[in-house]
Design brief:
The complex is a heterodimer of chains A (228) and B (390). Chain A is α/β, with parallel strands linked by helices. Chain A has one domain: 3-Layer(aba) Sandwich (Rossmann fold), CATH 3.40.50. Chain A contains seven helices and ten strands. In chain A, β9 and β10 form a beta hairpin. The longest helix of chain A has 16 residues. The radius of gyration of chain A is 17 Å and the shape is globular. Chain A starts with a strand and ends with a strand. Chain B starts with a helix and ends with a helix. Chain B has 390 residues and is α+β, with helices and mostly antiparallel strands. A six-stranded mixed β-barrel of chain B has the order 2-3-8-5-7-6. In chain B, α3 packs across α8. Chain B contains 13 helices and ten strands. The chains are: A alpha/beta (228), B alpha+beta (390). The interface between A and B is medium-sized, with 32 and 25 residues.
């Protein structure tokens, strides 16, 4: 599903040395996997996530998504891939304020070219999948952190993307809410979603079926477990 | 891209920030209302100014004002120049206290002759005008405007009643034809007319008349006639060669030019006022939208992450600015028509419905939205999603 070869990305801030964040990084994810990428802060895991999510471009290297090279797509085409093939979950949830849960989940469908007719119905179904059928018309300010993150996950799911990219999804949550969110990811994975989780927390990463470690701009396989 | 849904969500967005939307609207509402008032009342007001000037001058008339003008001067001019068909003095007394049976009011008082109904274009709707006997005897008779009648007497019936002008008693013999408010803002339906001889002897104790109007036989020659009048008066007043006139002459040709100018100025000022207000409105909308973009950086980043292109982000902000502006424009049309109706009623100006004015007003509001939305929309579209989501 995801195939990355010799990916390089470096940054240069004025007056500082060039920072090689990713160096000849190889990585691949098969459909149906639940992979956790673990790394200390500054290890380049968010940079990797941004490149995987087509929010950023690598300096060099190959990236194939669904067997299609994406390095040379135009910005409009990349926007379309983000819309249809990728679902994002962020640490800060990034829900629109003063906008109901259902309307937040409808958002990706506004930019879809598929021409969904009943986006409200699809949004409600996605909210049911994450257990928020009782909170459809609530505003983010009326929801707990865990519930807000569920809305964000429903938003990531609603366009049926092949893969969900989650960047520290439990980082802003208490332990119990974090555990519930991880259970939700496990359940979604069991039902067929491919999940790529980025975290600095080994305990959180242990929910994944495969854990890779990022350090010095490269990945190392850590533990491989057979998905139950 | 699902444009219909996207536009809908922009609309909902505006509804969520009512106070902000209100501040963005107010300038456009005022600007468009000004345009609507201008287009519905401008023609009528210009017409009214024209009518008032026509009433004051009429075709083929010469208006004279001088602090030393007396009746014999007018007589001399009329005797010497055959083309003078008629003349009539107008002796302005200013505001005086008018009272009757315990009620009183301030009103402009002026002295006129028996032919003033013809020369000064104002007759009576009830009772009678002055006659030569009134002038010869300096009779204490008065004509009053209908508004003054309403102020002093219940349910009309002023004719035959006595009023006091200052401390001098007069009999009301006629009610003046209503002509409304003149271009100087004077309510001419509050006036009192008395014979000019009475004004001279019983109210002012002076021979000075101050103003008069001549009617000439050929309207095309008023300017030449005015020159001849000037020559006679300079002679009578013994004004030496090279000295300035002690009087001013205005002809109906001059009045036509002045009326045209007044009409044009009215249109220009209304348009100018509307344009300035709309420009300010555009700046206000643009600056509020810029703040909105900054406030919604995370939203823009998120929208890009879930598939928005730069184009659709720009379109969203442009659409929001244009919607505010267009909706405000529609409100402005309503406010404008409302205000125009009030003014029309208050100042007795006929209203005209001009579809072109309506189109221009709504077009202007759309233009304001687009112009003010461009910069904020570009700024939003250029945001880097990674920076925006940080």
């Amino acid at each position: 599903m995801i195939k990355i070869q010799k990916l390089c990305k470096s940054f240069q801030r004025p007056g500082e040395d060039v920072l090689h964040v990713l160096r000849d990084l190889d990585f691949s994810v098969e459909a149906g996997e639940f992979v956790a990428i673990v790394g200390a802060s500054g290890s380049g895991k968010t940079t990797l996530m941004n490149i995987l999510g087509l929010l950023d471009r690598a300096d060099s290297g190959g990236y194939e998504l669904h067997d299609t090279p994406v390095e040379n797509l135009s910005s409009v085409e990349r926007a379309r891939v983000r819309n249809e093939a990728i679902g994002f979950v962020f640490q800060q949830f990034h829900l629109l304020p003063r906008t109901t849960a259902t309307e937040n989940v409808e958002l990706p469908m506004l930019y879809s070219t598929r021409g969904d007719t009943d986006i409200s119905k699809k949004a409600r179904e996605a909210l049911c999948r994450v257990g928020l059928e009782e909170r459809l018309t609530h505003y983010p300010s009326e929801l707990s952190g865990g519930q807000q993150q569920r809305v964000a996950i429903a938003r990531a799911l609603v366009n049926d993307p092949g893969i969900i990219l989650a960047d520290e999804p439990t980082g802003n949550l208490d332990q119990e809410s974090g555990r519930q969110i991880m259970n939700l990811f496990t359940e979604l994975n069991r039902n067929g979603s491919t999940i790529l989780l980025i975290t600095h927390d080994e305990a959180i990463a242990s929910a994944a079926s495969r854990v890779v470690r990022i350090a010095d701009g490269q990945l190392q396989e850590a533990i491989t477990r057979v998905a139950s | 891209m699902n444009w219909k849904l996207l536009l809908n969500s922009s609309l909902r967005n505006l509804g969520r920030f009512k106070l902000r939307s209100f501040f963005m609207s107010i300038g456009v509402i005022l600007g468009v209302a000004t345009l609507i008032i201008g287009s519905t009342l401008g023609g009528g007001a210009a017409q009214k100014i024209g009518d008032q000037i026509d009433r004051m001058f009429g075709p083929g008339t010469i208006f004279i004002a001088s602090y030393e003008l007396k009746e014999p001067d007018l007589q001399a001019v009329a005797d010497e120049l055959d083309q003078i068909v008629a003349y009539a003095p107008r002796m302005m007394m200013g505001e005086l206290e008018i009272s009757s049976a315990g009620r009183s009011s301030q009103a402009g008082v002026a002295g006129y002759s028996a032919n003033a109904d013809y020369v000064w274009n104002r007759s009576v709707t009830d009772g009678r005008f002055f006659d030569d006997r009134d002038i010869d005897r300096a009779a204490r008779v008065a004509l009053i405007g209908d508004k003054l009648e309403d102020e002093l007497f219940d349910d009309g019936g002023a004719i035959g009643e006595e009023i006091m002008i200052g401390s001098v008693p007069f009999e009301v013999v006629g009610i003046l034809e209503p002509i409304g408010i003149d271009p100087h803002g004077e309510d001419r339906d509050m006036e009192v007319y008395v014979p000019f001889s009475t004004a001279q002897r019983r109210l002012a104790n002076t021979d000075i008349i101050g103003m008069a109007k001549f009617v000439v036989s050929n309207a095309d020659l008023v300017d030449e006639d005015a020159d001849q009048i000037a020559a006679i008066l300079r002679d009578r007043y013994q004004i030496a060669e090279g000295e300035k006139d002690s009087f001013q002459l205005y002809t109906s040709k001059f009045a036509d030019v002045a009326a045209d100018k007044a009409k044009r100025m009215l249109n220009v000022y209304v348009l100018l006022a509307a344009v300035i207000v709309l420009l300010v409105a555009a700046v206000v909308i643009a600056s509020i939208m810029l703040v909105v973009v900054r406030e919604r950086i995370a939203e823009v980043g998120l929208r890009k992450a879930v598939g928005a292109t730069s184009g659709s982000i720009a379109a969203q902000f442009l659409w929001e600015a244009t919607t505010v502006s267009l909706v405000s424009g529609l409100l402005g049309v309503a406010v404008g028509f409302g205000a125009a109706a009030v003014f029309a009623n208050l100042y007795e100006i006929p209203m005209q419905l001009k579809p072109l004015g309506l189109l221009v007003a709504l077009g202007a509001s759309v233009l304001v939205g687009i112009v003010s939305g461009i910069i904020p929309a570009r700024r939003a579209a250029r945001l880097d999603p990674i920076e925006a989501l940080r």
